Amino acid sequence: MTIRAVIFDVGGVLSHHHNLAALDPWLDRLNLPAEQILHTVFGNEVGGRASRGQATVAEIWAFANQTFGLSEDDLQALRADIWATQTWDTDLLDYIRSLKASYKTGVISDAWPNARTTNVPITDDLFDVIVYSAEEGLLKPDPEIYQRALSGLGVEPAEAIFVDDTQRKVDGAIRVGMHGLLFTDSQAIKQQIAQVLSDK
């Protein structure tokens, strides 16, 4: 069956927290390495609930601040610096833009309720469908979240490629009949996508 759509995860694929130098002012103050600061925010249990639409962004930060112990003003400053660690893969975004001439494009992302405003490069002109878990009340690899993206794109599972940096989420796509690809880096994934497209 011909491929008609290519769908991407966001965090770990299109964006990464690579600019860890943005957290340098906080390392001594919090007595935590940069990676632990990020994990305290993005790996906490309230964040998991928020990604299912069951908690607010304010509740995530309040929970994280039980570890940080900062004043409200300082917490806001830390939030800004944490988001400053985020980098976007402009090369991959340009590649997706080139795909749009021939294929539908989409996003399926486990994301907080504010993803529409914080994921600035993820726009309706670049992606035909954007499915965020907090809005759907579903996390990958629930089969339904893939089906909702496929339905929005108007394609069958076998007509779609899905790219994610987590194997179990790739496997979830494969189980519903999609072509699942594990992201390691942008050059490799472009080659893998091209290979699937050339085979179909």
Short description:
With 200 residues, this protein is α/β, with parallel strands linked by helices.
* Portion in beta strands: 5-15%
Architecture (CATH level 2) name of the largest domain: 3-Layer(aba) Sandwich
The CATH topology of the largest domain: Rossmann fold
Helix content: 40-55%
Uncertain regions spanning at least 5 consecutive residues: none
The main pleated sheet reads as:
5 strands, parallel
Rg calc: 18 Å
Structural domain count: 2
Distance between the termini: 7 Å
Number of strands: 7
- In DSSP terms, counting alpha (H) and pi (I) runs of 4 or more, how many helices? 11
Helices and strands, in order, run as EEHHHHHEHEHEHHEHEH
The CATH class of the largest domain is identified as Alpha Beta
Largest beta sheet: strand ordering: 5-4-1-6-7
- Briefly note the structural class of the backbone: alpha/beta
CATH-assigned homologous superfamily of the largest domain? HAD superfamily/HAD-like
**What characteristic shape results from the CA principal axes?**
elongated
